[in-house]
Amino acid sequence: MDLYTASAITSFYSKLEEQSAGFYERLAGDERCSEGREVFLAFTMEDRKNREMVLRAYQETITDAFEAVFSFSGLHEGDYRVNTELTEDLSCLDILRRAVEVEEKIYRFCVDVSEKSRRLLDDLSHAFEAVAKRKANRKMKLGSLLRKHQTD
Amino acid sequence: MEEPIKEVMRLRNYINGEWVESESKVFRDVVNPATMKTIAKVPISTAGDVERAVEAAHEAFPKWRRTPPLTRARYFFRLKELLEKSFEEISRVGVMEHGKTIDESRGETRRGIENVEVATGIPSLMMGYNLEDISRGIDEYAIRQPLGVFACIAPFNFPFMVSLWFMPYAVATGNTYIIKPSPWTPISQTKLVELIDAAGFPPGVINMVNGDVEAVNALLSHRDVKGISFVGSTPVGRDVIYKEGAAHGKRVQAQCGAKNFVVVMPDAVIDSTVASMMSSFFGNTGQRCLSGANLLIVGEDDTFYRRFLREVTSAASNIRIGYGLDESVQMGPLQAEVRKKRVLGYIEKGLEEGAKLVLDGRRPKILGDYPENCFLGPSIFEDVTPDMVIAKDEIFGPVMATLRAKDLDEAIEMINNSSYGNAACIFTSSGKASQRFQYEVQCGNIGINIGIAAPMAFFPFGGSKDSFFGDLHGQGRDAIDFFTEKKIVIVRWF
């Protein structure tokens, strides 16, 4: 499905963050990657804060005069869907790789939305840019966990 | 899609802190224009209902006026909190009663809340001023005092927001109030008043009477109503509200119709300008007094003209039309069948006058299985001249009339020749052109690379010529002036 409106964008983003938060919450209670427990719990909280921040940026700045309905084109939901399943057969290494994929997708979504909304919905653009920075940071943290696990 | 209205509501009036039945036996159906289902029945109240509301407001006035401004402000802080909690529900109700998209409706709700936020600053906003020693030992000061009962006659196109352009300022300054919602779209006002009730405003301070012409006439002629705020068409605003209100000694602010020009200079940033055009001309399905109506492309460069018009037409033809609760929808239906019929009449008129219909919205593709009754797609005319009816009349629908001007001089002249003066916008990269535009154009609201020049709550909502009748506008400092009388005191002590 294509995403055309600010409402559709924020709804989809909200689902992504909820999915991501749920993923890390489950992961924190999973024995397979127990050494990352603190990091995953922090990610869960951060996901929910990100979601709040973006929704606030949307709801507190959207006004009838802004171009919320016509600012987005060329964004396809399918390009940003994430897989947050934690099946039995996955090792910690697999799970960490999956986490990096999740972060990469959400990061890409945030960057793309931020770019699309820069000219006409700048507050929203800034909120997504801030989330993208946090996601980029997170990719680094996951990367170091991944490397640590590979060398162990 | 979550529809907050599950069954047909039977609306009532709110008088003296209680929900009461109208004495009228006449009810009108409120219809969701996307589904054509009846979602409420609204009473068409009588002059007797208005009389009771005015009486309640009049009786509540002395005590409310004595309530300290800070205490009055605190009621609005509570209302603001309740509005935030109900933000989504109110916005969804707005879609159901009006037809606009959920983004547009949230935008409207937000604008309404912003006025409540500004009114919470009333202890500062209402301050007077003073000067000591106007003569040796004599001081002089000006204080602002409320006047009594005010009323608002609200339109159908922004059913939640418009009463909030006025009521919070009126009540926060110590007046009491009566809201008369549009009978076409009264549900979000009922939701608002439910929250007003929950916020604990004293009985009689804010009242609501549903209805139509009889209620309007009763408000206009009532001796205890000190002022009227109106938003609606120019004929009604000018010939009824302003004249009758003034004849009965009232303060009047009548914000009326428009025919707004959007000027595109050859140096405009095309991509962003085109996106802004969509919102300006087709947002709220063209049913707003700040909508772009006449697209005026400047310059004799045919290549630029062709390219710009092609891009605008292409973008407009891709607008997704459907039920506004569907988040992928970019334009909803018109608010009622009668409005669609009116717009269709103008499209016919444009064709008769010889304008060329480059995008025909009369048979729109609708997303989902909804009856066509109120739906229209965007229509774009070119070869429109300033003397054509479609370039002069307010159409109030998704119709763009494209005109050309050889230079900015001619563009400004065309705008200033219009009988309306609500808004005008310019899209350009030139500071010099925009500065000149702002200076010379005779309109109350100017947009520079902004397609909808809608003032925020802390600024007055401008408007001039046939777009506004009165002296003081809604919102901002004008609202404080409108709802208060300045009393001057000169003091000497022996």
Describe the structure.
The complex is a heterodimer of chains A (152) and B (494). Chain A is mainly alpha-helical and 152 residues long. Chain A has a single domain, classed as Ferritin, core subunit, four-helix bundle (Ferritin, Up-down Bundle). Chain A has helices at 6-28, 37-61, 92-117, 122-151; strands at 2-3, 75-76. Chain A is elongated, with a radius of gyration of 16 Å. Chain A starts with a strand and ends with a helix. The relative contact order of chain A is 0.17. By secondary structure, chain B is α/β, with parallel strands linked by helices. Chain B has 16 helices and 25 strands. A 7-stranded mixed sheet of chain B has the order 16-18-19-14-13-21-22, sandwiched between helices. Chain B has a 6-stranded mixed sheet with strand order 10-9-8-11-12-24, with helices on both faces. In chain B, strands 1-5-4 form a 3-stranded mixed sheet, with no helix packed on it. The termini of chain B are far apart. The mean pLDDT of chain B is 97.
Question: Would you spell out the secondary-structure blueprint of this structure?
Answer:
The complex is a heterodimer of chains A (152) and B (494).
Chain A: E1 2-3, H1 6-28, H2 37-61, E2 75-76, H3 92-117, H4 122-151
Antiparallel strand pairs in A: 1-2
Helix pairs in contact in A: 1-2, 1-3, 2-4, 3-4
Chain B: E1 9-10, E2 13-15, E3 18-20, E4 27-31, E5 38-43, H1 47-66, H2 69-85, H3 87-98, H4 102-119, H5 122-125, E6 129-135, E7 138-146, E8 149-153, H6 167-172, E9 176-180, H7 187-199, E10 206-208, H8 213-221, E11 225-231, H9 234-247, E12 251-255, E13 260-264, H10 270-282, E14 292-298, H11 302-317, E15 321-322, H12 337-352, E16 356-359, E17 366-367, E18 379-382, H13 389-392, E19 399-405, H14 408-417, E20 420-421, E21 423-427, H15 431-440, E22 445-448, E23 464-465, E24 468-470, H16 476-482, E25 484-492
Parallel strand pairs in B: 1-5, 8-9, 8-11, 9-10, 11-12, 13-14, 13-21, 14-19, 15-17, 18-19, 21-22
Antiparallel strand pairs in B: 2-3, 4-5, 6-7, 7-25, 12-24, 16-18, 20-23
